[in-house]
Amino acid sequence: MIYSKGKQIFLLVIMTMAVFMASACSSANSEADQDKNGSLSISETSEGGSSEDPASSVSDNLASSAVDFDHSLDSYEPHKDHYNFYFTYKTVHAWWDAVALGMEEAQRQFLDKGIVITYEYMAPEAASATDQTRKLIAAQKKGYDVIGVDVADEKIITPLLNEMVDAGTKVMTFSSSDAAEGCKRLAYVGNTHNYQDGVDLTEALCKKLDYKGKVAILVGSVGAPCHEDRARGAEDTIEKYSDMEIIAKKYDMDSVDKAYRLTMQILMTHPDLDGIVCCNMSNPVGAARAITETGSDAVIVGMDHDEEALRYLDKGVIYCLGVQDCYSIGFDTIQTAVKIADGNQAGELFPEKTDEITTVIYQKDAALMLELLYGDIA
Amino acid sequence: MRQGKKVTYKTFVLTAVIGSLLIVAMLTVNTIRMSRRTAVATDEAVSAVSLFYLEAMADRRAKTITNLISNSFDEMEKAVSYIDNNEIGSQEELRYRIGTVESLLGLDQFALVDEDNVVYTHYTTYTGGSRHSFLSDEQLNDRIISTVSLYGSSKKLCLAVPTHELVIMGKRFKACFVQFDIRDIVDLLAFDDQGRTHFALYTKGGGNLSGTELGPVILKRNFFDALKGIVPDAVLEENLRNFEEEKGGDLSFSYNNAQETLYYVPIEGTGWEMAVLIRESVIHDQFLDISENNLEASRNMIILTLVSVLLFAAVLLFQLINISKARLEEEKETSRSFHTMANTDAMTGVRNKLAYSEREAAINSKIKAGEIQKLSVVVCDINGLKAVNDSQGHAKGDQLIKDACKLICRQFNHGTVFRIGGDEFVVLLKNEGYDTMLEDIAEFNRKVEANISENGVVVSVGYAILEKEDRELRDVFERADKMMYDRKKELKAMGAVTR
Question: Taking the domain B353-493, which CATH number applies?
Answer without folding.
Answer: 3.30.70.270
